Amino acid sequence: MPAVEFANVTKRFNKIVAVENINLVVNDGEVIALVGPNGAGKTTLLRMAAGVLLPDSGKVLVYGIEAHRAEAKRHVGFMTPMDRGVYWRISALDNLVFFGTLYGLSIKEARRRGLELLREFGLAERANDWVATYSTGMMRRLELARAMMHDPDILLLDEPTSGIDVDGKRIILDHIRRLKGRKTIIMASHDPQEIELADRVVYLNRNIVSTLPTLKIVKVLVKGALPSLDGFRITDLGDGSYVIYASIDKFNDLIKKLASMDGNLRVIDLNVEVAFAERNARIEERMNRRGGGPWV
Length: 296
Ligand SMILES: Nc1ncnc2c1ncn2[C@@H]1O[C@H](COP(=O)(O)OP(=O)(O)OP(=O)(O)O)[C@@H](O)[C@H]1O
Prior knowledge:
Elements: E1 4-13, E2 16-26, E3 31-35, H1 42-49, E4 57-62, E5 65-66, H2 70-73, E6 76-79, H3 92-102, H4 107-120, H5 136-148, E7 154-158, H6 166-179, E8 184-188, H7 192-195, E9 200-205, E10 207-212, E11 217-224, E12 233-236, E13 241-247, H8 251-260, E14 265-271, H9 277-290
Parallel strand pairs: 3-8, 3-9, 6-7, 7-8
Antiparallel strand pairs: 1-2, 1-4, 4-5, 9-10, 11-13, 11-14, 12-13
Helix pairs in contact: 3-4, 5-6
Bound molecules: adenosine-5'-triphosphate.
Adenosine-5'-triphosphate binds near residues 13 and 41.
């Protein structure tokens, strides 16, 4: 039985159609990245799978049970976007104990599990501090810990590493990597390093545009003085900005190189939308025909 199934799902907010006729089966143990532009409906899909939002038509099922029902919710941990899922005026540990008891853990069990997760996410020293004193990155890690308190089979992660520093990001990405194969994970993402963890990338723009096994190329827009960069294709846009194309395995390398360049170079944007294997293959083909002409 699929872990999560969207069957003909449509959701509107007044006149806005957030998602339309979505059909998607997520298998047990699969890691899915939902990718698409702002407003594409990624968060809406996650909220429906978490059972906190009902579809207008169609069905959202968790192990065959409608997602809003309590038996379905027990299987699911939802890491909400930004910092909406925890209480600010109590400590991190009290938050975890509170949410743990909502899922039926005893206070003692919830405390043990909460401390274990706080340790794992590098927050043990701040366990008793008010969440209001946390940085964005610490808050995101706490959000993930909260979603994991009841050891759910399915994790719904909304941009899990957005807006956080390199160390915080590494802790979360390593954790997700360790969960691969043991949990079903659906992740809404704009981040190539998150997307790289997925078994399947579902590109969404109100409805499903394409489903592909892997992401191949990331496109980075930079502005300023760009010294030569061996091993990367570059397009000069002529206005002092450049597009650099990096395969996913070289992306970290590229970011390190860009970071080590002097302050005259700025990263303006990063685009994964055009990065799919299908389109990459088309571009490669065109380049080969032209004998290696410009990309755009
Ligand atoms: N509670 C709401 N009330 C009204 N409109 C909403 C609500 N939630 C979402 N929408 C609208 O539904 C559409 C899909 O939004 P959603 O947040 O699912 O997109 P997203 O793909 O997660 O975007 P982003 O990448 O910016 O996070 C958008 O047009 C948004 O404005």
